Amino acid sequence: MRYQVNIPDGVSGDYKVVNEESYTKLYQLINSEWLVIMEDNEKEAAEAEDFLNAATGDILLAGLGLGMVVQPLIDNESVTSITIVEKFQEVIDLVWSHVPQSNKVRLITDDIYTWTPDKDFDVAWFDSWICPIDGTDPYGTYLTEMKTKYESSVGVGHFWPYGVTW
Questions:
Q1: pLDDT grade, residue 139 (50/70/90)?
Q2: In angstroms, rounded to a whole number, what is the distance separating the alpha carbons of residues 159 and 19?
Q3: How confident is the model over 36-41, as a mean pLDDT?
């Protein structure tokens, strides 16, 4: 399975989208090096599978990325709303106009660490690549911080890429 996106090449600040090897890749400039932080490949689709299978009701997405899971969520009749919280305007500038649109979807420009939910959510997808903030610990502090912050307003939280839920 693959959820292919249709986003043209482009650069905005410390982010860029590149179509190469039949995949679309989102890069971030970290320590003077362009690192791939997301791509629309089969591996990333598989990593989202548990979340997408559990998606029902009101959905919270932590990060826009390439918008890869938006179309499957729109197509899911059990999903009533999709709220995407994206911190970086550069990512929005590159990706948002190419993401499938629906009255189910809203985008909030904010930081998932500091944003205050304006409603309760049934399922959340914390699909954020945190390096180097969390150092070398692959789980880092992100899982703990997101659970502490959101467990009172989210029924089930799913985390990339570990398949961890609460």
A1: low
A2: 26
A3: 94
Q: Which residues contact 21 (CB under 8 A, 6 or more apart)?
A: none
- What is the spatial distance between Cα 111 and Cα 129, in angstroms, rounded to a whole number? 13
> Whole-angstrom Cα distance, residue 27 to residue 45?
18
Which tokens belong to 14? 């410390």
Q: Can you tell me the distance from the alpha carbon of 21 to that of 119, in angstroms, rounded to the nearest whole number?
A: 40
DSSP line for 56-121: -EEEEEE--TT-TTHHHHHH-TTEEEEEEEE--HHHHHHHGGGS---TTEEEEES-TTTPPPSS-E
Q: Over the stretch 98-107, which tens digit does the pLDDT of each residue have?
A: 999 999 999 9
CA distance 60 to 162: 18
Tell how many helices (H) and how many strands (E) occur in the chain.
4, 10
Residues of the chain above pLDDT 70, percent = 91
Q: What angle do CA 64, 140, 46 make, to 5 degrees?
A: 50
In the block, residue with structure tokens 């990593």: 47
